[in-house]
Write a structure and sequence with these properties.
This protein is about 50% helix and about 5% strand. By secondary structure, the chain is mainly alpha-helical. Helix 2 packs across helix 3. The chain starts with a helix and ends with a strand.
């Protein structure tokens, strides 16, 4: 009985504190640093986040989330799974 309780407690703890269950903060891709973007968006690591910042610096602010597809390494699937996490404030 104690073994079952410990197993159940371990499972609940794993579910509550897993990276998948932790919601990342939304991020404004027009002002965020590469580190902030990498931390906030799923499937976007440091290199892709830096590519987003580099694109923004070379081409000006993003006007739509879909414009991220113009960034090398960012595809439609990445955009869709992060759409609710991406903010684009008017400039």
């Amino acid at each position: 009985m104690i073994k079952r309780l410990l197993s159940a407690a371990a499972l609940v703890g794993a579910l509550l504190f897993s990276p998948l269950s932790m919601a990342a903060e939304a991020v404004d891709i027009n002002v965020a640093t590469a580190a902030e973007i990498a931390t906030s968006l799923n499937g976007v690591g440091p290199a892709k986040a830096q590519a987003i910042v580099d694109y923004r610096e070379a081409n000006g602010p993003f006007v739509s989330v879909d414009q991220l597809a113009d960034v090398k390494g960012i595809g439609a699937a990445t955009i869709e799974k992060n759409r609710t996490q991406i903010i684009i404030e008017p400039r």
